[in-house]
Specification:
alpha/beta; single chain; 12 helices; disordered C terminus; oxidoreductase; about 15% strand; about 45% helix; 8-stranded mixed beta sheet
Length: about 290
């Protein structure tokens, strides 16, 4: 299968990596060559880590990289694709524009998938002439480690598209869960609810970030605490999701003021070096300043 991934950022290069590791030919497309270079370098780093931990061989790493190509030209990227997965910014207009452009150049048999974590796939697909081939494939960060993919079935999605999408997820050794299209789906609604409440606990001084996260990792067995996870996902991303869900479902998804303040200050989490924690070289080295952050 030829898989085209649109976007070489955190999610895009992660999706490209797991698709290539499963034996698919992969093309990554982004707007600028330096972004593509950075994405491939991140894939190489992830694979090298796997070799160092004896999770794969050097030969498997080399074969995976050989299956990956890059381009800045959209038509070239999708012209022979069996599956196109967009991982562009989480904005409805951008995703609709992307789907419209892809449909002009992709084969009529190609599945068009969105990696959106919260936006309506039904609305994204509404701009297509053949929306029955659209579906949501919501991967989780970091893609090469997280085993779940949320398969989001839009109002227009055909049963054939749904079946093929599930088959692809299983072929890359991920576990699919199938949900009907609704704002935030299942995972994002649950995830941002926990994250937002953790932020409210922090901003009202009930506990500090490390203790809040330990409550969930040690007490409930979560692999990562809700504040650390918010830093990894991106505070700006979480704020966008909450604001979108607030418009759909009301004030139960109202973003905490502390989250808004940090985003306004450019504190987006791991990618900016500071969110609820301070990050250096991808690792937590401290907590962010503030009255209740000690």
């Amino acid at each position: 299968m030829q898989v085209t991934v649109l976007g070489a950022g955190t999610m895009g290069h992660g999706i490209a990596q797991v698709a290539a590791m499963a034996g698919n030919q992969v093309i990554i497309r982004d707007l600028e060559a330096p972004i593509l270079t950075s994405g491939v370098e991140s894939i190489e780093s992830n694979l090298k880590g796997g070799v160092d931990r004896n999770k794969l061989t050097a030969e498997e790493m080399a074969a995976t990289l050989d299956r990956i190509q890059t381009t800045t030209d959209l038509a070239t990227a999708v012209s022979t694709a069996d599956l196109v997965i967009e991982a562009v910014p989480e904005q409805m207009a951008v995703k609709q524009e992307t789907f419209t452009a892809v449909e002009e150049s992709a084969p009529k048999s190609a599945i068009l998938a969105s990696n959106t974590s919260s936006l309506s796939v039904t609305e994204i697909a509404s701009v297509l002439a053949n929306p029955e081939r659209a579906i949501g494939l919501h991967f989780f960060n970091p893609v090469h480690i997280m085993g779940l993919v949320e398969v989001v079935v839009a109002e227009q999605t055909s049963t054939e598209t749904e079946s093929q999408a599930i088959g692809f997820v299983e072929s890359i050794e991920k576990e699919p869960i199938v949900v009907r299209d609704s704002a935030g789906f299942a995972s994002s609604r649950l995830g941002v609810t926990l994250g937002a409440e953790a932020i409210r606990i922090l901003e009202t001084g009930v506990a500090g970030p490390k203790d809040i996260d330990n409550a969930m990792t040690i007490g409930y067995g979560h692999p990562m605490g809700p504040l650390e996870l918010t830093d990894v996902v991106g505070l700006d991303v979480r704020l966008d999701i909450l604001e979108y869900l607030q418009t759909e479902f009301g004030d139960r998804f109202r973003p905490p003021q502390l989250l808004k303040q940090k985003v306004r200050a450019g504190k987006y989490g791991k990618k900016s070096g500071e969110g609820f924690y301070v990050w250096e070289d991808g690792e937590i080295v401290g907590v962010s300043g503030g009255r209740f952050d000690e």
